[in-house]
Amino acid sequence: MQNHRMLGVLVIGQSPRPDLVDEFRRVLPASTNIVLRGVLDGLSLEEISCLAPTCAEDTLFTVLPSGVGVKVSHDAISTRARSVVQALQQEGCEWVAMCCTGEFPELHSLPVLFASRLHTQLAVAIGQDRRLGIYVPLPEQRTAAMQRWRASGFQNLTVVPLVPKSAAADIDAAASRMAAAQPDLIVYDCMAYDSALRARADAVTKRPAILPISLLARVVAELSCSANAVSTVA
Question: Which residues sit opposite 71 in a β-bridge?
Fold first, then answer.
């Protein structure tokens, strides 16, 4: 009998997000049941507006199912996320993939796979002594991104704002600014960046790049394959 495993996928915005599910479906075993939840599920736009960031360091960006991008408070998301993760556990999800590249130390005691840890450690492993290019959604996130990546050991940094779901001309313009800096490695520092945007930008920069949503999906796939093998042997 085929073993159907459940993966919780948590977005800091709202569900449904078929674009994110498709990214996981690209690499996950067909038997995996994906349960997607949003930290802001059930809230109206007016209620979401009450969770606005208090400063640049408190700013997170997410894309709602309507395609609208919104800024939300990191602190507010952290507070609400714990109960959503616990609900996913109760539904039978062994792991919950956190679809945000921000840091959430308040959730570290839970079985959460953090995209922020994965893409940061991979970048450190392959390029810490090289020139690093970072895409962030919003201009006000540049300072925080510089501080975080410098704390990870990178000194030669270029941060370029690029809103996810941007028009082709805007992607090309941001990629041209990135290419001018000649980075050795590029990180798309937001889970809202998808494979299509990455492909267009990479065609301009022609540099190795890390896409967090793709990396997270592949790590989950690796864990799922290992777990399935253990279950089959057992």
Answer: 61
Q: CA 71, 84, 10: angle at the middle one, nearest 5? A: 60
Same domain, residue pair 107 and 206: no
Q: Give the tens place of pLDDT for each residue, 30-69.
A: 888 999 999 999 999 999 999 999 998 899 999 999 988 9
Structural domain span for residue 184: 117-212
Read off the CATH number of the domain in which 217 is found.
Answer: 3.40.50
The tally of domains found in the chain comes to 2
**Which CATH number characterizes residue 172's domain?**
3.40.50.2300
d(CA 178, CA 87): 41
Task: Looking at the structure, tell me whether residues 92 and 122 fall in a common domain.
Answer: no
User: What tokens does 152 get?
Assistant: 């990870």
Q: How does pLDDT run across 2-35, given as a tens digit for each residue?
A: 456 789 999 999 999 998 899 899 888 888 899 9
Indicate whether 206 and 220 sit together in one domain.
no
What would you report as the CA-atom Rg of the chain, rounded to the nearest whole angstrom? 18
Whether pTM exceeds 0.70 = yes
23-27's contacts with Cβ under 8 Å and 24+ in sequence apart are: 23/194, 23/195, 23/213, 23/214, 23/217, 24/97, 24/217, 24/220, 26/195, 26/214, 26/217, 27/214, 27/217, 27/218, 27/220, 27/221
